[in-house]
Design a protein that fits this description.
heterodimer, A: 315 residues, mainly alpha, two-stranded antiparallel ribbon, 1% strand, B: 629 residues, alpha/beta, MetI-like fold, eight-stranded mixed β-sheet, five-stranded mixed β-sheet, 13 strands, 49% helix, 12% strand, binds iron/sulfur cluster
């Protein structure tokens, strides 16, 4: 098992390099002199010269890439001139908030999505199935930012169940309940689309499995129907559900940007949007590479989970 | 194509989506012709007019602009951008996919590596990076959304293209000296286009949603021009005081995306052949029972007795009579062979006993199954479940498919017991090991922790038998348990079953197509053809002198146990399709002694001698027939 994890980690290296190349190439599309673009209104001749020196901006593209990469490997993601602090510090701080939000949404979408899909499949064409199918369709069709706004309107403004927006620091002096209070609405709004996708896929994966011979064997043994569905069928269906959960993790992680805007959540997505509007290019560059790298690592965790679940995968 | 449209029309939801989309697109197209207020003229005196106010049907926004007008122009813009992004992504993605799939080898490798890299990004993140580089603006948002979706198309189209590129007609075109470009255009592209259309129909909703999202973030369309997303973004600050300015564009996005998704689902379903055949239905816990006519009484004191059993498959408006009135019976310690070609209904008969025929489409439409004098067909599911595996157990063919791939065989054996009576962990394990020993699996203590894929076919089949024995059942129904095995293993498994029957007094219903197996194991045999028993009697008697022409042909096909894998196809002709059974004898078309009388009316299963019965008016060993010949 340890060997398998190591193998997967090693195989992530080319992917991480590929990601850095793609981000670098995208950022190289910025028209005009890079130093001026990066510095924006801070572009005094001295600053431009210093930055050129730092990032090797006078060098050819390939050299520039390697300078950037080696800086990053050493933990130097550059400096945000607008915020006047290192990119990595800012990203790490914001990423924590996003992780709380996206992590909660991910748990929600996995649990409710799978449950809805299984119930739907178990009652195929019945009332429950039709109701779930309709709700799921609504869920995957509604823009999460619109849903978030409507939730604020209904549950925060009219019913006063939850605060309108904002977030309390996790490690502050407030209790966890204050955080949860602020987290509930954004996490749900973020989870809805992903829940719909997971539910759909779980339903079809379950239907596929329920027709298999080993389900008939379970029934022939006299296994209770509940156990046939939740133990035999779901276990086998998980093999095709888990990869989709991996993809959905990417959706909630990056889709958090909308929710963070709507609920004023101090996450990395909002940081990116602000940075884009401010043309704070190094912050965008660093943030994107960091998030993508985290996602790659998460997907390795998904693969490992898959191999634990399915003994047929050679580890 | 018309077939496809008909299927689509039958799906009411998809049709609804199509109609809504049609209306939206129609209004988007004619927006410039409508007498609307200028969407960008501000009028601060009339800010935040409510819905239905005079001169502004949907009210006005924070700058006093007419919301209806802005909504229609915004919808037009959002649709245009979404469709454009979809077309760009589909075109470029398809081109990449076709090139990778067609040329294969290193080209394919390099391209797909790149595609994988792009797919390693969380979805929207890449779009944000692209907008960051190009700068905010609607065109840039369009480019970003299209670019992010290219890998999806490339990967799908590549898969299809690889399949096509290896087909004969492509080889033929190559040999005919056609250039790659013309082969791609004339042979590959036409086959790929339907896939592109499906992929587009399922993703265009996303693309509209994403461009709206980027605009919502302020990275898409820039003021004063607004698409639906930026309308929503601008309205956000007034969400609490004037919610209608948010609700109007938000609902519009919801309506559009929902209509597209409905339509996309409909397109996908209409093109999925499995949905048409009903093959995606989930089988119920027990076969549906819909008995018409009187229920036959139990006779005698048999352990298991089938009386006039009828099982059908109802697919759409077709009815397949898989089992058409079957009588069988077994006593304790007896082994009854049920033999016939594949499709003769023997497996369905066996599965009907415990209500295990997949339903839908299966329905038990008549007859009864008596176990110790009690009718199982009419029994409620809970009773059936308690008897399954405990009193009547099954052994299935192909244990790789019939054992759960993700649980150890120990767990599966223990479960067979624990779903009928509580059993402790260590006791369960000991029992599982004991069962494996009973079926002579060497090294049982170690094997108990193996997964099915780690065992050989013969070992797996023994596990299947062990599982059937777990609760000491009275009846075992074995459905071709040796078909997948090689000859030596087959003989071992049969000996094992025979021993168990003698030791434990099991009643066995043994389904097979192999007379060799019957000869080795069964006391009596019933021959099945087209859903009915055509001959029944003691094994020796039938083997020595088959009475039904079908039986004798069957025997001619499989002379001895394990003589290769010769199946019954050696009989000329095919069994009749069970939804179109002919009048009279179902075997008449393949029978060499058929007469006109055979095709007239029902032929009964008449007694031939004391213990034998045959459904034929010219039985082979009948003295009358012999005299006539
Ligand atoms: S009834 Fe006639 S057709 Fe049918 S098997 Fe007998 S002889 Fe042949």
């Amino acid at each position: 098992m340890a060997g398998y994890i190591l193998k997967r980690l090693l195989s992530a290296i080319p992917v991480l390099i590929g990601i850095s190349v793609i981000v670098f190439l995208i950022m190289a599309m910025i028209p005009g002199d890079p130093a001026t673009a990066i510095l924006g209104s801070y572009a005094t001749p001295e600053n431009v010269a210093a930055l050129n020196e730092d990032l090797g901006l006078d060098e050819p593209l390939v050299t520039r890439y390697f300078i950037w990469l080696s800086n990053m490997v050493q933990g130097d993601f550059g400096r945000s001139f607008a915020l006047n602090r290192p990119v990595l510090d800012e990203v790490l701080e914001r990423f924590g908030a996003t992780l709380v939000l996206a992590g909660t949404a991910f748990v929600l979408c996995s649990v409710f999505g799978i449950a809805a899909g299984v119930i739907s499949a178990a009652n195929q064409y019945g009332f429950g199935d039709k109701a779930i199918t309709f709700v799921v369709l609504l869920g995957i069709s509604i823009p999460s930012f619109f849903l978030g706004m409507m939730m604020i309107l209904i549950f925060a403004v009219n019913l006063r169940w939850f605060p309108v927006s904002g977030m309390w620091p996790i490690f502050g002096d407030r209790t966890i309940w204050v955080l949860l209070d602020h987290l509930a609405m954004p996490a749900i709004a973020l989870a809805v689309v992903a829940t719909g996708v997971v539910a759909r896929l779980s339903r079809s994966a379950m239907l596929e499995v329920l027709r298999q011979d080993f389900i008939r064997t379970a029934r022939a043994k006299g296994v209770r129907e509940n156990s046939v569905i939740w133990r035999h069928a779901l276990r086998a269906a998980m093999v095709s559900i888990i990869p989709v959960l991996g993809i959905q993790a990417g959706f909630v992680l990056s889709g958090a940007v909308y929710i963070e805007m709507v609920f004023q959540w101090p996450g990395v997505g909002r940081m990116l949007v602000d940075a884009i509007l401010r043309r704070d290019i190094l912050l965008v560059q660093g943030g994107v590479v960091f998030i993508a790298a985290c996602y790659v690592l998460f997907n390795i965790a998904v693969d490992v989970a898959q191999s634990l679940l399915d003994p047929r995968i050679k580890t | 194509m018309s077939n496809f449209l008909r299927l689509l029309a039958r799906n009411k939801l998809a049709l609804g989506g199509l109609i809504v989309m049609g209306i939206v697109i129609f209004f988007a197209l004619i927006t410039p012709l409508l007498p609307l207020a200028d969407p960008n003229v501000t009028n601060t005196a009339d800010r935040f007019q409510p819905v239905f106010s005079e001169g502004a049907l949907l009210g006005t926004d924070h700058l006093g602009r007419d919301l209806l007008s802005r909504l229609m122009w915004g919808t037009r813009l959002s649709l245009a951008v979404g469709f454009a992004a979809a077309i760009i992504a589909a075109t470029i993605g398809a081109a990449i996919g076709i090139i990778a799939g067609y040329y294969g080898g290193r080209t394919d490798n390099i391209i797909m590596r790149g595609v994988d890299m792009l797919m390693a990004f969380p979805y929207i993140l890449l779009a944000l990076a692209i907008v960051a580089a190009l700068g905010p603006g609607l065109l840039n948002a369009l480019i970003a959304v299209a670019a992010v979706n290219i890998p999806f198309f490339a990967r799908n189209i590549r898969g299809i293209t690889v399949g096509i590129a290896n087909k004969e007609f492509v080889d033929a075109a190559r040999l005919a000296g056609k250039s790659d470009a013309s082969i791609i255009l004339s042979e590959v592209l036409p086959n790929v286009i339907p896939v592109i259309v499906i992929a587009m129909s399922t993703t265009i909703g996303w693309m509209i949603l994403e461009t709206a999202g980027l605009s919502f973030l302020g990275l898409g369309s820039q003021p004063p021009v607004a698409d639906l997303g930026s309308m929503l973004g601008e309205a956000r600050s007034a969400l609490i005081t004037n919610p209608h300015t948010s609700i109007v564009p938000g609902m519009m996005i919801l309506i559009i995306v929902m209509a597209i998704n409905l339509l996309g689902d409909g397109v996908r379903d209409a093109l999925d052949p499995r949905l048409k055949s009903g093959a995606l239905s989930r089988p119920m816990p027990a076969t549906r029972v819909d008995r018409k006519g009187p229920i036959p009484e139990a006779e005698g004191d048999d352990l298991l007795a089938l009386r006039g059993l009828e099982t059908q498959f109802h697919v759409k408006d077709r009815v397949y009579k898989a089992v058409g009135g079957v009588d069988l019976n077994v006593r304790p310690g007896e082994c009854l062979g049920l033999i016939g070609e594949s499709g003769s209904g023997k497996s369905v008969t066996a599965l009907s006993v415990m209500g295990l025929v997949a339903s839908p489409p299966g329905v038990i439409t008549g007859g009864a199954v008596y176990f110790e004098g009690e009718d199982l067909v009419g029994a409620p599911y809970s009773k059936l479940r308690r008897m399954r595996g405990k009193r009547v157990a099954y052994i299935f063919q192909d244990p790789l498919a019939t054992l759960h791939p993700l649980y150890t065989i120990g767990d599966q054996l223990i479960e067979a017991v624990s779903c009928h009576r509580p059993i402790g962990k260590s006791e369960g394990r000991a029992h599982a090991v004991e069962l494996l020993r009973q079926v002579r699996i060497p090294n049982a203590e170690k094997r108990v922790d193996s997964y099915p894929h780690e065992l050989s076919g013969g070992m797996r089949q023994r596990v299947g038998i062990a599982m059937a024995l777990a609760n000491d059942p009275e009846v075992i129904i074995a459905d071709e348990p040796t078909t997948a095995l090689d000859v030596t293993v087959q003989a071992q498994v049969l000996t094992l079953l025979d021993d168990l029957r003698r030791e434990k007094g099991l009643a066995i219903l043994f389904i097979t197509h192999d007379f060799g197996v019957v000869a080795q194991l069964c006391d009596r045999v019933a021959v099945m053809y087209a859903g009915r028993i055509v001959e029944q009697g003691p094994t020796d008697a039938i083997l020595n002198a088959p009475a039904h022409p079908y039986t004798s042909k069957l025997m001619a096909c499989v002379p001895e146990l394990g003589e290769g894998r010769r199946r019954l196809e050696a009989i000329p002709g095919l069994p009749p399709v069970v939804d179109k059974l002919p009048d009279g004898c179902a075997f008449a078309d393949r029978c060499h002694v058929a007469t006109d009388a055979c095709r007239r009316g029902e032929i009964p299963l008449d007694p031939l001698s004391d213990k034998r019965r045959v459904r034929c008016i010219h039985p082979v060993s009948d003295p009358a027939t012999e005299a006539a010949q």
